[in-house]
Amino acid sequence: MDKETGVSNKADEFFQMFRRGEEFTKDLLKENEKLRYRIAELEESVERSGDEARTKLYEERIALFEEEIASLREKFAQVEEENKDFASKYIEVEEENNNLANLYVASYQLHSTLDFSEVLRIVLEIVINLIGAEKFTILLIDDKTNELVPVASEGITTTDAPRVKIGQGRVGTVAKKGDSYFSENLEHTGKIDMLEPIVCIPLKIKEHVIGVISIYSLLMQKAGFSNMDYELFNLLAGHAATAIFSSKLYTQSERKLTTIQSFLDLLKEKPKK
Question: Which fold has domain 117-259?
């Protein structure tokens, strides 16, 4: 079930709660009408009776009022519980809307430029701001050497991040198999093994892996991953890979065109006399 369907279902639950509230109000009015009708009958009978009947009437009226109060308290408790449920559902719908907005913005940003450096910067911002990663690297596969080469990083100097052979360590294994890795232990530690990240996401175009995102630590306030985080990981695995690959090809082609154009310009120059 996709996100839009999930939000639609929650909206249906939202309106169903309003309908239940309307039905409850109608039932309550009907009960009050019955009680008042009964009281009117008793008052009418008292007018034809003496003091003893009048006392009995008052006792019955008190009993009816107590019954009405008890019923109202019970109904109030039910409404209070439904209001709590309604507030909880409302918060869930708001969170779903925010998540959809974040996913849309992230996807739009990834495909808003063909500049390779700018795409890498956007990916870094998504991983930092939306996922909450503190230290991580982006590595792309060099087809000539069959190695993962660091191209961008946060909290780690790119030059200090080692090249990783395909199949080497956790990072190389993810690049080889194309399956995401999530460590069960996300605690913050001072030690970092560049081959053993806590999270490693393959950057894939269909089934072809072009690189990985290796996360080594999360921000202190980040205790774990939410459903939103996993949606972002899926987005990064596909959309980020496409954006990076396209921008890299475009940048390379632009450089080649510039080189060719410069060469043609040299050929067009008239020889000096």
Answer: Beta-Lactamase (3.30.450)
